[in-house]
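$ ./design --mode recover --in tokens.txt
reading tokens...
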């Protein structure tokens, strides 16, 4: 399995979108509001990769994992972090996270930041095991309750 930065030569946008949708599918009917993944298109995903630092893991040329990294003032924001369901628990997620940590360190950023939904307690526990702590909760527009949890990991 290979992990590479997504560059201008990458062309498997539909396959990457399929990967993201399949890895986020378990959230359907669990989180409210629904995931923004439902609004993604191959073209929007390609633009996101141009605007951010993105990595894809492939097996036999097929995307099986990805992570998108957006540099912010004091941290690196992680989004659309996906691992194919059949490969979850194999260490691929940690390998992708290590790429994000490399990007943050190379840019002089001392922390990683991500958001996960309030309902996804297993995600919270996984990120805590990986060194993240909960920093705040927030609500999507139109919601009177917390819908998202922000988590940060300080880097050495």
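writing sequence...
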């Amino acid at each position: 399995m290979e992990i590479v930065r997504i560059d201008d030569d990458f062309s498997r946008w539909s396959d990457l979108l399929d990967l993201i949708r399949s890895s986020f599918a378990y959230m359907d009917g669990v989180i409210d509001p629904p995931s923004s993944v439902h609004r993604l298109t191959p073209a929007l995903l390609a633009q996101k990769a141009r605007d951010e630092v993105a990595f894809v893991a492939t097996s036999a040329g097929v995307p099986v994992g990805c992570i998108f990294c957006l540099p912010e003032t004091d941290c690196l924001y992680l989004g659309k972090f996906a691992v194919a369901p059949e490969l979850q628990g194999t260490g691929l997620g940690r390998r992708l996270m290590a790429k994000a940590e490399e990007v943050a360190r190379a840019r002089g950023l001392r922390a990683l930041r991500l958001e996960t939904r309030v309902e996804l307690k297993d995600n919270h526990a996984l990120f805590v095991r990986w060194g993240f702590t909960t920093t705040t909760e927030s609500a999507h527009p139109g919601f009177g309750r917390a819908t998202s949890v922000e988590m940060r990991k300080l880097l050495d």
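exit 0
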